[in-house]
Amino acid sequence: MAAAEAQYDLLVIGGGSGGLACSKRAASHGKKVAVCDFVKPSPPGTTWGLGGTCVNVGCIPKKLMHQAALLGEGMTDAESFGWEVAAPKHNWETMVGNVQGHIKSLNFGYRSDLMSNGVKYYNAYATFLDPHTVEAVDKKGKVTKITASEIVICTGGRPRYPDIPGAKELGITSDDVFALKSPPGRTLVVGASYVALECAGFIKGVGYDTTVMMRSIPLRGFDQQMAGLCKTYMQEHGVAFIEGAVPTAVEATPSGAKKVSWKLADGSVGSGEDDTVLFAI
Length: 281
Known about the structure:
The protein is α/β, with parallel strands linked by helices and about 280 residues long. It has helices spanning about 15-30, 50-55, 60-80, 90-115, 165-170, 175, 195-205, 225-235, and strands spanning about 5-15, 35, 120, 125-130, 135-140, 145-155, 185-190, 210-215, 240-245, 245-250, 260-265, 270-275, 275-280.
């Protein structure tokens, strides 16, 4: 079956905040514009809709889950202010269901916005054939050959896994945690980036034992006095840290837990078991 063909003034590859803004602005100046956006499933199989990282697996779900943690903390503090409340109990499935429902409403809004601005949307993976032509393949395998006078690449990035045994098979990343169908349980967060510490913060905040494994310093590239204050605050609120450690392997155990082995800066080794291993390196 021959591929369908389409011609545009501008093709934008990537449907995040940059790609959507670029495409709509070009269309407002009278250009014929299309957007290709396609999310390859993460190793555990997570995928999402139009809108990019911030909307689907970044700022939006992160802030909602932090709000969940803050509400629990507020309920705990309320007793000191005279409120007689039962001990708070958190339901992970309810939170994730409502967060994902909100995200899907945003996905629909972005699609509608493109339509109202006259921008053609392809939920398809674009591969260059030449400097002005791409082959776009959707999830059903339908191929569209798209030619454009100009092509803008706004694809962003995806989390990476360490090159160690069991990482992709047994671990997750920030691509997965916001849609996790069951509670994470005892969680090991590998990395000390802002993504790592944010995820560790809300997972601990909604009631699950959380440990951060860091190779060197927290929040590399940020002011280290402030980074140190963040780490101290997290420790004071129950987040444990394994410092100077690098993971070497992840293994499944008969109980269903994940055994993570690591090597310390002094050459010694260690290991521990967790229900969820989240890489944010």
